[in-house]
Amino acid sequence: MTPSAPAVAPENQPKGTPSGLDRYFKISERGSTIAREVRGGFATFFAMAYIIVLNPIILGSAKDMYGNQLDSGELVTATVLTAAFSTLLMGVIGNVPIALAAGLGVNTVVALQLAPRMSWPDAMGMVVLAGVVVMLLVATGLRERVMSAVPRSLRKGIAIGIGLFIMLIGLVDSGFVSRIPDIAQTTVPLQLGQGGHLVGWPILVFAVGTLLTLALIIRKVPGAILISIVAMTVVAMVIEAVAKVPSWGLTTPKWPGSPVDTPDFGLVGEVSLFGGFEKVGYLTGVLFVFTVLLSCFFDAMGTILGVGDEAKLMDKNGNLPGINKVLFVDGIAVASGGATSSSATTCFVESTAGVGEGARTGLASVVTGGLFTVALFLTPLATMVPSQAATPALLAVGFLILAGSIRDIDWSDYTLAVPAFLAMVMMPFTYSITNGIGIGFIAFSVLRLAAGRGREVPIAMYVVSAVFVFYYAMPALGLT
C-alpha cells in the first residue's frame, strides 16, 4: 500500500471558522485540507482509470446464449457512467475517500458464467438483484453477520482463486496461452501461444507490457497499471502503422478521428430482472445471484476496512464509524452496475493511492467522480486500446490479490487450509468462480464434521453447502 501522509497536527490546522465544505466533509476534523483532498482524488482516478479500458474488453469479448456481444463504445460509456455515479455517491453520503468502478472478477463471472446461459439483459438483471440483496442485508444488519459466517481463511482462498482466474483470463485473451482444439485428441487443454510457440507482434506487446507493469509496481510508481496501458498502446499503434499486423483480436490500435465524442448510453436500462431464472431454472439462478453477491461482498468489505485503516478513520475498537452508509452505497453501486450493463460496481483498493496523498474524506471521492464524468466524453481513446496492452493489468492485479491474501490463510489447520486451497484452484481449473466457492464451502463443512468440530460451523455455512450439494447433484437427479 502507498504510505499514508501524516495527519495535520491541531496546532497546524487552519485558524478561523471552517467553511461549509469543510464542515460537511469534516476536512479539518480529520486532519486534512481541501488541497490534499483534491490531490488525493486525482491520484485515485489515475490509479484506477485502467478499468475504463479493461472492463469493456472483458465484457465485450464474451457472447450470450444467442451469440450477441456488447458494443465496446457503449460499454465504455456504461463503465465510466457507473463509476462516476457510484464514486460521487460514496463521497457525498459515505464521506470516505473510496472510489468505485466495475469489479474485476465479478465482470468475469457475468461474462463467462451468466451470459453464456442467458441473454445479456438477463445476466445484468441478476447483478441488479445481487445489489438489492446487498442493500437488504445492510438495512437489516445481516451483512456483517453473513460475512462472519465464512472463515477468514476461506474468504482469502476465494479471493486468491478470483485472482488466479483473472490471471488466466489475461493470458488467454492476450493470446499468450491458447486452447488446444479437441480435434487434436490430447488430454492437454492449454498450450503456449499458437502451436506451442510465441509468434507475432501482439504477443510481444503483451510480454513487454507485463514486464513493464510489474517493474513499475515494484518501483512503487503511482498509476503503474495505467502508465503501462498507455505506453504499450502507443507502442502497438506504432507497430500497426509500420507492420500492418493481420489481427490484433478485438481491437486494432489506431488513432481515432477525434478523441472526443458524445457518450453512447445505448446499454443503460437494458435489464431483465427475472428472465434469467426462466433460462436456467430457479435454483441455478439463485446460485448465480449468490455467486455475484459473494464476489462483491467480501471484496468490498475488505477494501472498505483496509482503506479506512490506511486513512486512520477507524475507532478504538477497529470499526469504521458510519460503515452502514458506506455499505449501503456499495449495494447501490452493485445494482447500478447491472442497470447500466457494466457489471457489478465495487470499491477499489486503488483508493489507497489517494489516501497516500493525504485524502481523508469524501471530498476526494467527489473529485475522482468528477474526473470520471469528464472521461465520459473521451470514449474513442478507450476503444483504441488492444487487449494485448490492457491484459497485463489482469496478471498484475491477480498477483497483488494473491500476495495480499495468501499469508492470511491458516495453513496449520487443514480444516481451513484444504477448503481454501480447493476454492483457489478450482476457479481457474474449472473456469468457474461458482465452482470454487461451492467446493470450498462443501469441503469446509465436511472436514469440520470429520474432525469432530461440527459445532464450530455456522448454520449458514451448512445451509449454503447443502444448496451447493443439491446443485451439483441436479444432473444426476434429472433436474437439469
TrEMBL record:
It comes from the Bacteria. This is NCS2 family permease. The keyword Transmembrane helix applies. It is a multi-pass membrane protein. It is found in: Endomembrane system. It comes from Streptomyces albipurpureus. The chain crosses the membrane at residues 40-59, 80-103, 123-142, 154-178, 198-218, 225-243, 282-307, 363-383, 389-406, 418-447, 459-479. Residues 1-21 are annotated as: Disordered. InterPro entries: Azg-like (IPR045018), NCS2 (IPR006043).
